[in-house]
Amino acid sequence: MPEVLGRAMTDFSTDAARALAGPAWLVERRVSAAEAFARKLPPDVADEEWRYSAIREFNLSDYAPSLKSCDSPALGLGMDEIDAAAVVHSLNGRVVSLEVADDLVAADVFIGPLADADAGSALLGAVSADASDYFTVLNDAFAAEPLLIRVPSDVMVERPIVVVHQVTGERVAAFPRLVVDVGANAQAEVLDCHTSDSGPLLVCPVAELDVSAAGRLGYLNVQQLGPATWQFSSQLSRAGRDASLTASTAAFGGGYARTRSDVRLVGRGANCDLLALYFGDGRQGLDFRTYQDHVAADTTSNLLYKGVVSDESRSIYTGLIRVRPDARGTNAFQTNRNLKLGENAWVESVPNLEIENNDVRCSHASAVGPVDAEQQFYLESRGVPTGEAERLIVAGFLDEVLESLPVTAMRQSLRSAIDAKLKRQARLSLQPQAEGALS
Amino acid sequence: MSELVVEGLRARVGGQEILKGVDLAMASGEVHAVMGPNGSGKSTLAHALVGRPGLEVLGGSARLDGVELLDLPTWERARAGLFLAMQYPTEVPGVALRDLLRASASTGDNADEIGSLMRAEAERIGFDEKFLERPLNVDLSGGEKKRNETLQLGVLRPRFAILDELDSGLDFDALRLVSARVEAATEEDAVGVLAITHYSRLFEQLRPDTVHVFAGGRIQQTGGAELAQELEDTGYERWSDSPPPTTSASKLGEDPFADPLAGPFADPFA
Q: What confidence category does residue B110 fall into, taking pLDDT thresholds of 50, 70 and 90?
């Protein structure tokens, strides 16, 4: 279809990439990414990493990058309840407001547009370069204003740093880019929230998380996108010697929301926890792809993804643990558990191992099932009504992940988001019950 | 004064008829013991009364103050005043005892009141308070689970409580505290108790008014407290002509981890 192709060529062309504002190095970087993108084939379900996905229903040419900055103010997200060290709002991938506490400024913590930071250019792509795919390259070409959080060596930021991305407009494609650079023996927590309007939108966020020797980072991505948003998200992480990283996601929104999370353990003794909780309803598709890449010796990665799907929603989990030849003494675990509420929900769960060293401890497990009938009976035998018992069990199922997430101040908000999903279920199931009661 | 009346109760599990016409009547504050050999259907009686899924009632009735329990879903039976202390309480990850008690009707929404009730009950039976905030039954020992059941009985104050082998898994001291607590409930709150057990040791603190011998899917004999001692001395042999206890059924009774719904056993809930 030449017309479609023609539109795609225009909207995501090198000229379009060149038109975005920024210093010369950034413009050059975008242009060469746009050139690389033009040579890339779109992904397809025939590719292993896109198996089960909804990619064939996606049409890039339905969307266009937003080329100008946008005046409408970004929404707050109830962040007042969080005692944050910094709050950044971005709209369609551009920073619209920025607040940083004085003590962070005094400690040389940088939070703001990466282009404004000294030596920022070296940090952009430092982690993603080894993990590029169709959508990260697209982000390279069209990220309007990459954001940097840099915590210098030995600095401990006690309160969370909060970033809120919002996507708005008519068929807008947005490319938020966040680079988190945690120096040696430094410590930080980052809350990365994504929201969007209810109409058709595209968002392709890339977060690069780089934790240097003995650094500690807790990263939590909270996805509450609108119901018609396509998301292709990439969280790409690297952990150095004795570094400690939690890369986590709480996913509730989106029409089809894909999250890829890669961790590379490149320094001896590095430790990564990968956590996710998700809850799909309606006709949502929530798609998770993980990669635990053990490059160095004595590294540990522990993955726990737990999700709930109801109505006609779908969830996909596929993950790979790879242990490289030098990574002796690796501990790597991968667990994905799913609760399926109702006959029409659909779950695919495929864990994988690829081990090239014998001195390792690895395991993987996955499970899909309905609410446990024994648990349900136990609660009901105490006088808890059927629907309420199910809600308690489902919330309890997700609680194991919730209690392990970084940014503890978000827990109440996340519980509320889970409750909202469960209450929606309750309203839906009330209708047939009411009819039954009348008959 | 409340009344629980069971008449001609018949039930089937896995295609096999286990309850073959149970008749039983009890009033508030009374303690009735149901004793019998393994595999006789005692636990199935308990589960039929509360409405466990997987169990099919074939006939009969069970009325609590005239309300037909067998027509109600499990949670409404509980709200009508029926409580079951389970032989093998289920682990419910992520749901704390406090969440459970808040969601069950009889305690209402008063969170403060539930909290103080829970603590008071925990103290009465020597149940460590740290368990009150933990997920239900998760990583609890057998004895702690039984204390947890007893604590819920104390907080929920049912009209009738069925105790399914409450004594199993309890050491001597715990048994004394737990059975004394149930005895107190019969006096303080006039709870009627249907105590299912294999042994009479539960009845040192909890004094039965009536003892039923249960075998072959029905009550075979009813007598006073002295019958419990008699059974302890003579055993259940004279009842053992009554049917089928297969080997798998008796094994199941000894194995707390067996899945009660896993196979076609004579008494899957034993």
A: low
User: SS3 for A407?
Assistant: coil
In 3D, which of B193, B225, B241 has the Cα closest to residue B37?
B241
Distance of alpha carbon A355 from the chain centroid: 26
DSSP B93-134: EEEEHHHHHHHSGGGTT-HHHHHHHHHHHHHHTT--GGGGGS
pLDDT greater at residue B107 or residue A313: A313
As a whole number of angstroms, the distance between CA A126 and CA B65 comes to 74
Q: Given CB atoms, is B155 within the 8 Å cutoff of chain A?
A: no
Question: In the structure encoding, which two tokens stand for residue A259, read together?
Answer: 């999250």
Same domain, B176 and B138: yes
Residue B107 belongs to domain spanning? 81-207
Query: In this structure, are B51 and B100 located in the same domain?
Result: no
Structure tokens at A304: 């726990």
Looking at the predicted structure, is the pLDDT value of residue B249 above 50?
A: no
Check whether residue B114 and residue B50 sit in a common domain: no
Report yes or no on B268 lying in a domain: no
Task: In whole angstroms, give the CA distance from residue A299 to residue B190.
Answer: 61
Same domain, B156 and B185: yes
Q: Residue window 375-394, chain A: list those with CB within 8 Å of chain B.
A: 375, 377-386, 388-389, 392-393
pLDDT in tens, A66-101: 876 665 554 555 456 689 999 999 999 999 999 999
Q: What is the pLDDT of residues A6-51, one digit of tens each?
A: 444 568 999 999 999 999 999 999 999 999 999 999 999 999 899 9
Do B201 and B90 belong together in one domain? Answer: yes
Phi, psi torsion values for B85, nearest 5 degrees: -85, 115
> CB distance from A404 to chain B under 8 Å?
no
pLDDT band at A2 (very low <50, low <70, confident <90, very high): very low
| Predicted pLDDT of residue B33 | 96
Strand blocks (E) in A240-384: 244-251, 256-265, 271-280, 285-294, 300-310, 314-323, 330-341, 346-355, 360-369
Give CA–CA dist B34/B197, Å, rounded.
Answer: 6
Q: pLDDT tens for residues B170-188? A: 998 999 999 999 999 999 9
pLDDT at B233 exceeding the cut of 90: no
Residue of A nearest to B47 (CA): A381
> What are the pLDDT digits (tens) for A390-421?
999 999 999 999 999 999 999 999 999 999 99
Residue B104 has pLDDT above 90, yes or no: no
Q: Write out chain A residues lying below 8 Å of B73, CB-based.
A: 380, 386
CA separation for the pair B10, A302 (Å, rounded): 51
Q: What is the Cα–Cα distance from A267 to A24, expressed in whole angstroms?
A: 34
Residues B97 and B191 in one domain: yes
- Domain span holding position A296: 2-372
Residues B139 and B180 occupy one common structural domain: yes
> What are the tokens at A109?
């913590």
What angle in degrees, to the nearest 10, is found between the helix axes of A386-402 and A373-380? Answer: 120
- Please state the separation of Cα A325 from the chain's center in Å: 29
The answer to whether residues A174 and A138 touch, using CB atoms and an 8 Å cutoff, is no
Q: What is the count of structural domains for chain B?
A: 2
Q: Is residue B248 part of a domain?
A: no
For residue B151, tell me if it sits in a domain: yes
- Asked if the structure places residue B234 within a domain, the reply is no
pLDDT given for residue A93 in this prediction: 95
Task: State how many domains chain A has.
Answer: 1
Measured distance CA(B212)–CA(B197) in Å, rounded: 11
Task: Tell me the chain B residues in contact with residue A373 when contact means C-beta distances shorter than 8 Å.
Answer: 53-54
Instruction: State pTM to two decimals.
Output: 0.88
Confidence check: pLDDT of A205 > 90: yes
The answer to whether A382 contacts B90, with C-beta atoms less than 8 Å apart, is no
Residues of B in contact with A385 (CB under 8 A): 75
